[in-house]
Structures are given as C-alpha cells and as structure tokens.
Amino acid sequence: MQKKVTILGGGESGAGAAILAKSKGFEVFLSDKGQLHQKYADILTSENIPFEQGQHSEDRILESDLVVKSPGIPDKVPLVVALKEKGIPVISEIEFASRYTDAKLIAITGSNGKTTTTLLTYHLLKTAGLNVGLAGNIGDSFAWAVAEKHFDYYVLEISSFQLDNIVDFHPYISLLLNITPDHLDRYGYDFQNYVNSKFNIIRNQTAADHFIYYKESEVIVKELEKRNPPVGKVEVSLDNVLGSGSYLKDGELISNINGNAFAQAFSELPIKGPHNAINALAAISVAQLLGISAEQISEGLTSFTNAPHRLEQVEVIGGVTYVNDSKATNVDSVYYALGSFDQPVILIAGGVDKGNDYSQIEELVGKKVKGLIVLGKDPAKLENYFSGKVPQIYATEDVQDAVNKGREWGVPGDIVLLSPACASFDLFKNYEDRGDQFKAAVRNLLT
Predict the structure, then answer these.
(1) Where does the Mur ligase central domain start and stop, copy by copy (predicted)?
(2) Contacts 24+ apart (CB under 8 A), 313-316
C-alpha cells in the first residue's frame, strides 16, 4: 500500500518535496493555505500531483503517514499541533531530501553571512572541479535537486526554521557562523530556543564529521562547552593565531587544516569587511577539509561574485556611494555593514521590527552615521532609540523619498547605505523587492 505524504506549503521547497515524493512512489497531496505562484501550480498540474490552495483540508491531511512542512509554517499552528498529537511525523524538506541522497552534505547556518558563505563555498568547490549542487534556503529546493540530479556534494544554506523539523539530517561538514538575536517572534522571545534551533545542525554529527565555527562568538563557545558534541571541531578566528584552523593575521587569510597550509591577502578578494573575512575563512576551511589545493582555492576566491542585496554597490553619484544591503534584516547584519566602511554613513533602516535590540549598534552608529532615514510604516522605535544619538533623523514610507533625502544630506566621500535591520513586509514583497526598488530609486537620480 502506498504511503500518503502531504506537503504543507507550495513554494519552492514544497513543490520540490512533492516532486521527490512522487518519484519515490508515495501518494502525494500538496496543500497551501495561500495562493500558489502560477509557476508551481503549473508544475504540479503537469506532474499530476493533486493540490489545493486557499485552504487546508484537515480531514484529508490528518490521514497522512508523513507530512513535509514548509519552513515558513510555525510548529505552533493548530494543524501542525493536531498532526503531532495524532503521532503523524512532521519533517522539513531538507530532512526529507537527505533521506534520498548519498551525497556528502555541507550545511551552513548562522544569523548572518550564510548566503555569502554558501555561495563562496559552492564556488570554491565548483571551480575546483567537484560535482557539487547548491540548494536550501538560498532559493533552489534541495528535494527537487535530489529528485532530478545526481551530485557528489551539496552545499546547503540552512535556516533555523528548516532545522526545527529535522530528525536524521546529517551533514558531513556543518558551519555555524554566528548566533545573534533574530526571529525571536518565532521562538517565544526566548533566545535559547533560537540557539537550540541553530545547534540542531550538529545534532546527528559524529567524530568522523566536521563542525566549523567562529571562535569569537561567545554564544557558540558557551553552547559547545555545555553540549560537548563528539564532532571534529574547526575554529575560525579574526583575533587569534590558531595552530589548527583558519584565521586572519596582518591582512592575510591563513588556514592550516589536516597538514595543508593556505595563505592569501584578504585585499585580493572581491568581498570586503571583517564579516566577510569570517565568511571567507569558513569557506576556505571547507575546501581544505575536502583536499582542494591552495592554487584552486586562490583561483576560486579571486573569481567569486557575491549575491545581490548584500553590500552591493549600486552607483557613485556626485562622489556619494549608494550601497544596497537590503538582505540585512537583523541588527547584527547592520553591525557588520557599518563595520565595512570608514567613510561617513547616511543609514536607511526600518521595516518590520522582529524584537530588535539596537544597543548592539549604538556605538557604531554614534561614530559613523551622520544621518538616519527611517523607511517603514512604523518608525517610532528607531526614531525614539536614536533621537539625540545621530545628528539628523528623517522618516518616510517612500523609497524614492528616502534616496532623495540621502542625496540631499550627502557630500562627496559619503556612503548612503540601505541596511534595514528589519523585515521588509510592511512596504515591500520581500527583501529582494526592497533592494530592487532602492536600486531603481538610486538610478532615478541619474536621469
């Protein structure tokens, strides 16, 4: 008898999970409470996978043998609670996909930097000639790739939401770049719940596996002391010379792992700032663990192109540089962004606040920010916090107005930086839409 698998959520991960489930002989049903993107509706129809949208047929879903849940659906929603009460397993797409591949998994998480690190790691491996796939939170469904392709390695960007519903997911190499308060609304405003979620990445790792982490993260180090996991540990540091591991010293990225030595000037890389030194060292560590040569690592580092919306230079107009960092959806990201510039900054921030604590950027803002433009429907928290701490504050709900104000305040040598610290959903579809509208508004200044 065919096992019944229900997919909750019909986005990229849901559609991918449905295709994989069908390919493995399951009786598949996909249910989305919202409206499916036409692209996914068309694919499901062409694959003869039954689906519904605009509702969840609970009686049908509660007859499932297994449920694969979109990471966007919290565990506390009544339908998920009912499934668990009935003893029906509810897992994530990355868990489901991992059950059907024998590829070595390189899983990357962290509150910040995971997209850049994932893309750079993938680029290093691909440049070196490895048969490697790229998937996860970065946009492509892991399950879809497993259903239709065959790779020896996968580089996966993994969010805390995806890690919440794993069971046996087992990376060969895991990376944890940092843990700072984020998504606390999802975790009952308890930071430890979020920490626990991130540490799920090493839950099934053994002494034969590797865990790369940032040594200067107090949260990670304290949690490791508590847990003492059996996994092989590889440290990344900006402040310490390591006998084994990867570190920055006198502007050089240095790595010594498994007797392999690597060194390259950080200035030769296309990515800048201390946060990107951490990201690069983490990616280099993966390459070292996989035995990629120093020459191949160097070639990959220097030919890398970063993702859009992450400290992306848009234009220089009248001597003022406009930078799109729309992907900075939490305070820690803004800390790293501000740390990347020595010039005076006009900061555009705001949006949907997720329980932000602005004290962690207060000192940097005081030193670097000559003006704060709050872009969002509810500017009060940012305005109140930074009132008297920056020379000028302006609030608006219009991105063109924000960019115009940046031009008005800017003088040659200044940076106008969109680095919001907040989610985008009050005024925009997502952070990409926010970044694209910012870039369009900047380019309007040229006309």
Answers:
(1) 108-287
(2) 314/438, 314/439, 314/442, 314/443, 315/442, 315/443, 315/445, 315/446
The number of angstroms, rounded, from the C-alpha of 190 to the middle of its chain's C-alpha atoms is: 20
Q: Give residue 212's pLDDT.
A: 98
Nearest partner of 365 among 382, 347, 381, judged by Cα: 347
Q: Which of 140, 145, 103, 99 is nearest to 3 (CA)?
A: 99
pLDDT tens, position by position, 298-316: 999 999 987 788 888 899 9
Give tens-digit pLDDT for 346-375: 999 999 988 899 998 999 999 999 999 999
Phi, psi of 417 (to 5 degrees): -115, 115
Between 186 and 337, the more confident residue is 337
Report the distance separating Cα 193 and Cα 123, nearest Å.
Answer: 33
Residues in the annotated binding site: 110-116
Residue 200: per-residue pLDDT? 96
Binding-site residue ranges for ATP:
110-116
Any bridge partners for residue 121, and if so which? none
Residue identified by tokens 């304290």 is 222
pLDDT of 416 strictly over 80: yes
Domains, the chain, in order of start with CATH, read 4-88 (3.40.50.720), 98-302 (3.40.1190.10), 312-444 (3.90.190.20)
Question: Up-side HSE of residue 197: CA atoms within 13 Å toward CB?
Answer: 28
Question: Under a CB-based contact definition with an 8 Å cutoff, are residues 88 and 66 in contact?
Answer: yes
User: Exposure of 369 by Cβ count < 10 A (0-12 exposed, 13-18 middle, 19+ buried)?
Assistant: buried
Q: Reply yes or no on whether the pLDDT at 2 is more than 80.
A: no
